[in-house]
Amino acid sequence: MPNTYTQLYTHIVFAVKYRQAVIQQEWEDHLHRYITGIVQNNGHKLIAINSVPDHLHLFIGLNPNQSISELMRLVKGDSSEFINKARYTTRKFQWQEGYAAFSNSNSQIDAVVKYILNQKQHHLKKSFKDEYLSILKDYSIEYDERYVFNDLID
């Protein structure tokens, strides 16, 4: 649409089902490149991506022609299929249900990129659950802790 301008920066976080630590350094770069392709092929700009064994962070310039929920459906579904077809894990790979998405301003880009690229060092000191709850609090998102991490292993 002519004369439409947007600047939508979104930090997205999602975890492996049951937060199992299965993303391995040997293949995480392949996963990052695959997800980068999904994001870019859907018209978004990937600014940063990084993972640790139990979760992944994306920072994107969001194209308003597609909803975050539709993009995440594609990212999580297609990347799960990619991991399973490549047999990177011994058991069926799945992402947990849901995700967290946070908007950021232009002035926050450098800080968010540094935060995402520093995940491995960051998680030497802080668990994913502590990080996740801290982010929810930082963004003033109301939540019930009983439901944030309630997925039990089948």
Summary of the model, kept short:
This protein is an alpha+beta fold and 154 residues long. The chain contains six helices and four strands; from the N terminus they run βαββαβαααα. Helix 1 packs antiparallel against helix 2.
Explain what this protein looks like in three dimensions:
A hairpin with a 2-residue loop joins strand 2 (45-52) and strand 3. Helix 1 runs antiparallel to helix 2 (68-86). The radius of gyration is 16 Å and the shape is globular. The chain starts with 8 loop residues before the first strand and ends in a 6-residue tail after the last helix. Strands 2-3-1-4 form a four-stranded antiparallel beta sheet, sandwiched between helices. It has 154 residues and is of the alpha+beta class. 42% of the residues lie in helices and 18% in strands.
Separation, N- and C-terminal Cα atoms = 47 Å
Structural class: alpha+beta
Q: Beta fraction of the residues? A: 15-25%
Profile the largest sheet: 4 strands, antiparallel
What is the number of beta strands? 4
Order of helices and strands: EHEEHEHHHH
Tally of alpha and pi helices: 6
Overall average residue pLDDT: 92
Shape: globular
- Low-pLDDT ranges: none
Radius of gyration: 16 Å
In spatial order, strands of the major sheet run: 2-3-1-4
Helix content: 40-55%
Keywords:
4-stranded antiparallel sheet, 154 residues, alpha+beta, 42% helix, 6 helices
Topology:
Blueprint: E1 9-15, H1 25-41, E2 45-52, E3 55-61, H2 68-86, E4 100-104, H3 109-117, H4 119-122, H5 128-138, H6 145-148
Antiparallel strand pairs: 1-3, 1-4, 2-3
